[in-house]
Amino acid sequence: MKFSHSQHSRFRQISCLLTGLLLFANGTYMLMLKKVHLGTLLPLFIGILLIGYAMFYSIIQKQLNSNKKLRSTVKSLWILFYLWIFSVLCFFSYIALNIKNASEIPPLKAIIILGSGTENGKPTPTLAKRLDSATAVALKQPRTILIPSGGQDFGEKYTEAEVMQNYLIQQYQISPTRIFQENKSTSTELNLKNSQSILQQQQISMHSPIGIVTSDFHTLRARAIAHKQGYSNTVMIAAPTPLYNRYNAWLREYFAYISGWILNEY
Asked: Domain of life of the organism in this record (predicted)?
């Protein structure tokens, strides 16, 4: 069955409108949750553009039909947009394919758990997922030490590391003797750098198998940072990102990884 030109145009208009409304609704919802970052703002902006394109579709098409140069420019922009979407999907696929189950993790000397924020003395949903994933491995490897890593968030009474330790003990009855807090860091780079002194105190070499627990979207960049610092035998343990925030966080990380590569941070 062949579509006529008018049917094809109508399909494109409706597709842009529905996609735009979905992205706009998602971005608005995330802003209401105070998740203000590029992974939220970019889909919102694209959604507004697609809604505008759909609403003024006829006018835009008339302008394009009467201006060959403009039509060629717009066509090139659509091609670039599709290529960008393809690169984003490839990045998302890499994340999905590199998520390992706890049963696939080899014996580790230590597990470093990267911080991800606290709220009112409790782990954020994202941080709780990281702690749950770390525990799934720790319970299978009772001799492995855990290093919760994170300093004090603005407006919070306790450091991330302290909140993380309390969660591990209260939720999973992890022995405090296995937990060594790193409570000064404010970034992934510092999480890993400051944890090195704890590893040295426990006579654990940087060449030993060391697990690094972080959110699934963050594993690629965290591994690259760890490698630059001298961690030569890292095992990335990917924690699932809460569904409501998943693809916004993945999109934000897409840009963070590219910018880090451009700035030679790895």
From this structure: Bacteria
